[in-house]
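Q: Convert this sequence to C-alpha cells.
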Amino acid sequence: MRAPPLLIAIAILGTVAEAVPLVVLVAQRRRPRGARAWVAVWVGFLLLVDLVAIALTATRRPNLWLATVLTPVSVGLALWTLSWWQVSDVWRLTFRIAIVPLLLVWALLTIAVEDTSSFSSAAEPMVKLVTLAAAVFTLLSGSLARRGDLLRQDWFWISAGMVLYFGVGATLGPVSQLLAHRASQFLQFVVGVWALAASAAFLLIAKGLTCSPTR
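A:
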C-alpha cells in the first residue's frame, strides 16, 4: 500500500529536521569536541540509516531489518554522549559501563523473542526506555547541580531532545506491531505522529548546539 502524500511529507520533514543539528555544527566552522562531537556522530548515524531506509522504500524493498542495526548503535552512542554531561565521575563511568550489559540484554531478547522482519515488541522498547531514563536523569541532575541560566546550556536542550526522541520511540515498536495487521490507517497516523515528535526532538538538539559548549 502506497503511503498517503501527507505521511510522505511528514517523513521528508523528519529527515530534514534530523539534518538540522549537523547543519548548525557545520555553520559554526569549528570542530566539535567532547559531548558535542558525539552528538554529531549519533545524529549523523541516524540520518544515514534513515536515508538508507528511504532508498529501500523507494525501490520497494523491506527496511524493518534496519532497526536491528539502528537500535544498539543509537542507544550506545546516546548513552556515551550523555555520560559527558554527568555531574560526577562515578555517574560518568556508570553510564559508560552500562552500555555493555544493556546491549547484551538487547541481543539476547532479539535472538530469543524477536522477529526481525516485523516491529520490535521487547528488545527495542527495553533499551529505549533505559536510554530515556538516562536522558531524564541527566536533565534533572544537571538542572539541580548546575547554576546559571539553564536555557543557555547545550546539555539542557540536547538532553530534552533525547527525552522526547526516546520517549516516543519506545512506544513505536509495540504499537506498530499491534496495529500492523488490524488498522493500517491508524498505524500510518501513529508513524506520522512519531515523525513529528522526532522532528521536534532534533530541533531541540539543534537549539542546544547553538549554545556555548558546557565545560
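Helices lie at 5-28, 35-58, 66-83, 89-113, 123-145, 154-179, 184-209.
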